TrEMBL record:
The name this protein goes by in its record: aldehyde dehydrogenase (NAD(+))
Domain of life: Bacteria
Organism: Noviherbaspirillum album
Residue span, Aldehyde dehydrogenase domain: 25-483
One Pfam entry name: Aldedh
Keywords noted in UniProt: NAD, Oxidoreductase
Length: 504
C-alpha cells in the first residue's frame, strides 16, 4: 500500500525511532487507504505514573529558570519545526487524511504559536494595583503552575498540543501529552523534535519536561486523576470533556476544555456572494468536515438563497474528492468507518425531517480501497430541525432560509454548542449587531470570513457545551499559571484594610 511504503521515509526524515513504542496491538492506520502504518505498545499504568512523576520533578526545576530563557527552548523547538515542516506535514496527512496543504498548514500553526510564545516569554505581565492604605503597594505576580496534562484529538493531532505546550513551557510548566489513539505517530514525531531542541538547549531543560503517553482511555483517566497534574487541557467530544471536567472538579484541579462545535454562517441580503461561496466551501468541506470549527449550518436570507444555492450545488458536484497526498485534491477521506456511518445516519435523519439532500454518498478513489471517502453533502432544510442541533464530524452542510436577522441569530444561538460563527454582510448595522451582546453567543464571531481557520493570535475556544476554555493567543497563557496577589507595606505603621481598628 502506498501509505505503508511512504511512512518509513517520512519517519526517517523526522529522525523518529519507534523502537521504544513498538510491538503492541495499538495500530496507527492511515485513513487514506487503511494501511497499518505502525503497531505500537500502550504505556503501562506504571510507566504512565512514572512519566507524570518525572514531569513533576522537571517542573520543580524548570519553574526557577527565567521566563525569557524558557522562551529560548521554544524558539529552538520552532526552528526544528521549520526545518521539518515538509516531512511533519506529510506525516499529518498520512495519519489523519487531511490534504497536504492542510497538513503543512497545521505545522505552520505550530510554528506560529512558538513565535507567539517566545515573545510572550518576555511579557508575562502582572498588574500593579492602587492600595487603599498609605505606604502600601499591591501587585499581581504570575507563577508557574505545575504539570499541564494535554489530551488531544485526531483532527488536529499536533497543532492543538502545541497551542498548549508552547505556552505551558514559557509559563514554567512541564507537559504530559496523551494524544488520540488514532494519531500516535505524529505525536511521537513531535516529541522527537522537541527532544532534539531540548538537547540543543542543554542541561537547563530537565528530563521529562515534555512526556508522551501512548494509550487509550485508561491512560487519559490516569492523567486526569493524578494529583500532581493541576491543569488538564482537553480537546475532543463533549462527552469526553464532561468526563474530564467532572473528574478534575472532584479533586479541584483546573480543566481547560475545547469541545464540540456546531458552527453557523449567516448570509445576509447585502453579502458579497462570490466571497461567501468561497468561504462556505472551505469551511464546510475543508479537512473533510472534521474541524471543530467546520461550517455545519448555513442560514441564507430568502432573497439571495436561490442564487447562492445554485453556486454551491455547482461547486459541490465537481469537488475533487480523492487521495489527500495528490495535488488538486480538496477533500480527503473520513477518519474511519464509524465516521462514515455517523454521516449516513445524520443524512437519513435530515431526510426524515424534510430535508433535500444532495451528495453524501460513498466515493471510490483509485488505489485507496481501504479508505472511507464521501462526496460532501448539502442538505436543504425547511427550518432548523433536530438533526442540526448535533455535531456530526463529517462534511454535511445544512441550509435553511431566514427572513429576519433576529431569526437567524436566534437559530445561530439555539444549539448546545458555542464555538464559532460568522456573518456575510456589507451592512455595518448587521455586522455590529451580530458581534454585539445580543448577537452570536459563540467564542468566535467573524464578519465576511468563514467560521474555521482561525489565526493563533486570538483566544480560541467557545461557550456552552464547547466547554468555555480559551487556548492559543491573547491572554490564554493565564490558564497555565497561578496568580499571587502581593501587598507590600513599606511604612512604619500597620493600618488595616476596611479601616478596622484592632488595638492590642
Ligand atoms: C480544531 O478543529 O480542533 O480554526 C482546531 C481552525 C484551526 C484550528 C481547529 N486553526 O480551524
Amino acid at each position: 500500500m502506498e501509505t505503508v511504503k511512504a511512512i518509513g521515509d517520512v519517519l526517517g526524515q523526522l529522525g523518529v525511532d519507534l523502537r521504544a513504542h513498538a510491538g503492541g496491538d495499538l495500530n496507527s492506520r492511515s485513513p487514506i487507504d487503511g494501511g497499518i502504518l505502525a503497531s505500537l505498545r500502550a504505556d503501562t499504568a506504571q510507566e504512565t505514573t512514572d512519566k507524570i512523576g518525572q514531569a513533576h520533578a522537571a517542573f520543580l526545576q524548570w519553574r526557577n529558570l527565567p521566563a525569557p530563557r524558557r522562551g529560548e527552548l521554544v524558539r529552538l523547538f520552532g526552528e526544528e519545526l521549520r526545518m521539518h515542516k515538509e516531512a511533519l506535514g506529510r506525516l499529518v496527512t498520512l495519519e489523519t487524511g487531511k490534504i497536504l496543504q492542510e497538513g503543512l498548514g497545521e505545522v505552520q500553526e505550530m510554528i506560529d504559536i512558538c513565535d507567539f510564545a517566545v515573545g510572550l516569554s518576555r511579557q508575562l505581565y502582572g498588574l500593579t494595583i492602587a492600595s487603599e492604605r498609605p505606604g502600601h503597594r499591591m501587585m499581581e505576580t504570575w507563577h508557574p503552575l505545575g504539570v499541564t496534562g494535554v489530551i488531544s484529538a485526531f483532527n488536529f493531532p499536533v497543532a492543538v498540543w502545541s497551542w498548549n505546550a508552547a505556552l505551558a513551557f514559557v509559563c514554567g510548566d512541564s507537559v504530559v501529552w496523551k494524544p488520540s489513539e488514532k494519531t500516535p505517530l505524529t505525536a511521537i514525531a513531535v516529541q522527537a523534535l522537541f527532544e532534539r531542541a531540548a538537547a540543543r538547549f542543554g542541561n537547563d531543560a530537565p528530563p521529562g519536561l515534555s512526556a508522551l503517553i501512548i494509550g487509550g482511555r485508561e491512560a487519559g483517566e490516569a492523567l486526569v486523576d493524578d494529583r500532581r497534574v493541576p491543569l488538564v487541557s482537553a480537546t475532543g467530544s463533549t462527552r469526553m470533556g464532561r468526563a474530564v471536567a467532572e473528574r478534575c472538579a472532584r479533586r479541584m484541579a483546573r480543566s481547560l476544555l475545547e469541545l464540540g462545535g456546531n458552527n453557523a454562517m449567516i448570509v445576509a441580503p447585502s453579502a458579497d456572494l462570490e466571497l461567501a461561496t468561497r468561504a462556505i466551501v472551505f469551511s464546510a468541506v475543508g479537512t473533510a468536515g472534521q474541524r471543530c470549527t467546520t461550517l455545519r449550518r448555513l442560514f441564507v436570507h430568502d432573497s439571495v438563497a436561490d442564487s447562492l444555492l445554485a453556486r454551491l450545488k455547482k461547486i459541490y458536484e465537481t469537488l475533487p474528492v480523492g487521495n489527500p497526498l495528490e495535488q488538486g485534491t480538496l477533500v480527503g477521506p473520513l477518519i474511519d468507518e464509524a465516521a462514515y456511518s455517523a454521516m449516513q445516519d445524520a443524512l437519513e435523519q435530515a431526510r426524515a425531517e424534510g430535508g433535500r439532500v444532495h451528495g453524501g454518498s460513498r466515493a471510490q478513489v483509485a488505489g485507496c480501497k481501504g479508505g472511507h471517502y464521501v462526496a460532501p453533502a448539502l442538505a436543504e432544510m425547511p427550518e432548523q430541525t433536530a438533526v442540526m442541533h448535533h455535531e456530526t464530524f463529517a462534511p454535511i452542510l445544512y441550509i435553511a432560509r431566514y427572513q429576519s436577522l433576529e431569526q437567524a441569530i436566534a437559530w445561530n444561538n439555539a444549539v448546545p454548542q458555542g464555538l464559532s460563527s460568522s456573518i456575510f454582510t456589507t451592512d455595518i448595522r448587521e455586522a455590529e449587531m451580530f458581534m454585539s451582546a445580543s448577537g452570536s453567543d459563540c467564542g468566535i464571531a467573524n464578519v465576511n470570513i468563514g467560521p474555521s481557520g482561525a489565526e493563533i493570535g486570538g483566544a480560541f475556544g467557545g461557550e456552552k457545551e464547547t466547554g468555555g476554555g480559551r487556548e492559543s493567543g491573547s491572554d490564554a497563557w493565564k490558564a497555565y499559571m497561578r496568580r499571587a496577589t502581593n501587598t507590600v507595606n513599606y511604612s512604619q505603621a500597620l493600618p488595616l484594610a476596611q479601616g478596622i481598628s484592632f488595638e492590642i
